[in-house]
UniProtKB/TrEMBL annotation:
The keyword Signal applies. This is Uncharacterized protein DUF3515. It holds the Pfam family DUF3515. Keywords: Signal. Residues 1-25 form the signal peptide. It comes from the Bacteria. InterPro entries: DUF3515 (IPR021903).
Amino acid sequence: MHRRPRLTALAVAAATLALSGCSSAVEVSAAPKASDPLCAKAAQQWPTSVSGEELREVSVDSPTVRAWGDPAIIARCGMTSPGPTTNDCIGVSGVDWVARKLSDGMAFTTYGREPAIEVLVPKDYAPEPLVLGAFTEAAQQIPQGPRRCS
């Protein structure tokens, strides 16, 4: 039985942006563990641009959340690192990411790092994994634990 995917964070951000009219801020919330000191360290390494897209204003006043481009590529530090999964796990520049297909793009979460970084990439930037290299320096601020992709 196929279930229809629930409305994703990417879709919510896009819908909120579209409905907000002249507001240019991307609607997004801070991750549950955003106050972790490692997220502050990672946030200092957010890229200035991603796939040629410039930084956008976000609705939350937290350095642990950033967005680039339109539609927005969104990054948040402070997620729970995923456990073992059947989802694809890919390594990019020494950082492991678990990939989840969304109806409107892909979500990537660092694997084996706690707290985790989540990157939401709209399908407009396909192939979506190519943007992950921009987040290597930020992700490497959080130590790699024993879990690895391979």
